[in-house]
Amino acid sequence: MSGFQCQRSQEGRAYGNLGDDNDSLGDFQQPPEHHNKHLCIAKELGERGGEGCAYGNLGCTVGV
Q: In terms of residue numbers, what domain contains 52?
């Protein structure tokens, strides 16, 4: 993985973490946006595990 890909991967995980944190704080508007950004980055990089994680988190936030 190149330096750019590594940074993008970390950015995607950070979006996922932001979504989780906002959800825990009771903000139910921001998490889907953050998890969707995570999903887009994971797809861009071909990270299947990241895609699965983002889809799972999206499902949890939409189901609330």
A: 3-62
pLDDT in tens, 7-56: 999 999 999 999 999 999 999 899 999 999 999 999 999 999 999 999 99
Q: Identify the CATH number of the domain in which residue 14 sits.
A: 1.25.40.10
pTM over 0.70: yes
Using CA atoms of 15, 18, 19, 23 in order, give the dihedral in degrees to the nearest 10: 180
Tokens of 8: 């993008």
Cβ partners under 8 Å of residue 35, min gap 6: 15, 16, 19, 54, 57, 58, 61
Spatial separation of the C-alpha atoms in residues 58 and 61, rounded to whole Å: 5
Say how many domains are in the chain. Answer: 1
